[in-house]
Amino acid sequence: MCIEFLTWLSTYTLIILCELGDKTQVAVLLLTSNNPGRRWLIFGASALALTLCVLIEVTVGVTLAKYIGPALINRITGIIFLIVGLVTLAQYFKLLEKFKLKKPSNAEEVANNIKYSAE
Fold this sequence. Notes:
Blueprint: H1 3-19, H2 23-34, H3 39-67, H4 70-98, H5 107-118
């Protein structure tokens, strides 16, 4: 297989897997369920919007790679993901404190909480 096809295939597979169940897909599903007679209009608008988003992302990615390089982009995105993770953890502990919830101490206790909340 040629490298171009492998690049295309890996991009296609990654995007399909990432988009399944994504909020964009849920929004399209809700729009279609509220307007079933306009499904092709919603399909066209959604496809055009996603295509425009990808065009912007590819253009920005090429521009960033040209001026600051892929290695620095990887470091910056890694730092951003760490910051997002720390902020998410801080919000989690803040919510625990706000609602005076007890932190689950082990997996069995988490399973029991889920079991009792489902009943």
